[in-house]
Amino acid sequence: MPSDLRRWLGRLLAATLAIAALALMWRVAEVDLARLWQGLPRVAAWGARAWPPNFEDGATLLRRAGETLAMATLGTVLGALVAAPLCLLAARTTAPGALVYAPARALLNVLRGVDSFVFALLFVAAVGLGPFAGLLGIALHSAGSIAKLWSETIEQAAPGPIEAATLTGASRLKIALHALLPDVAPGLASTALYILEFNVRASTVLGVVGAGGLGQELKNAVDLLDSPRVFAIILVILVMVTAIDAFSAVARRRLA
Q1: DSSP state of 207
Q2: pLDDT tens over the chain, length 256 residues
Q3: Exposure pattern of 160-194 as b/e (b: 16+ CB <10 Å)?
Q4: Is 210 helix (H, G, I), strand (E, B) or coil?
């Protein structure tokens, strides 16, 4: 069989399998466009009931927004501190050997694989209700994500300075601080800012499991069927997330 025909048949088989997989997922997810169409009027009715947004007790909303921002920021900082040594162990160019590299990558997969929402749920059981549980959940998940992205940045660093420092007999710590860090620092900072931006969005829903923040206020308003209050909380979340996104985008552009 000619190679071109074999390649064409291979692509056709791959496309057929992909379409079949999507069709199966459509069925498993119980996608029903008719139900969506029938539900749209209920969404419109909710919007009518929610207007105007209820900003009474704005002090509580500001306090909850502060909790959300604190959870995201401190969780990201703590995650970055944990990720700093892990990323060196999980990068091929800086790991002492395969016996360290493989377990380090496996640990990062575990931390990344468990969502901050699930970690927060576990920490609520451990340390009780409140933003501290959310902070710990964000920190653990962020540590895995930051270390994974940082290790990939380190692996793409120019080898010249590292090889030159190695020839001088410098220790691994000195090589990392003086030859590697200056080269990859902008990339590492950009990654940390991206994770912070993501964590601000993620932390707005952690209150659903009792981890404080705007999510807790949102859950209370939903339970009371207070639609104007729900709308006001959603607006506060949008303003806060938009502000953080803008700040993060400007900071990343300056680091580039």
Answers
A1: G
A2: 677 788 888 899 999 999 999 999 999 999 988 998 998 888 888 888 888 888 888 888 888 888 888 989 999 999 999 999 899 888 888 888 888 889 999 999 999 888 888 888 888 888 888 888 888 999 999 999 999 999 998 888 877 777 777 777 777 777 777 777 777 888 888 888 888 888 888 888 887 777 778 888 888 888 888 889 989 998 998 888 888 888 877 877 776 6
A3: eebeebeeeebeeeebbeebbeebbeebbebbbbb
A4: coil
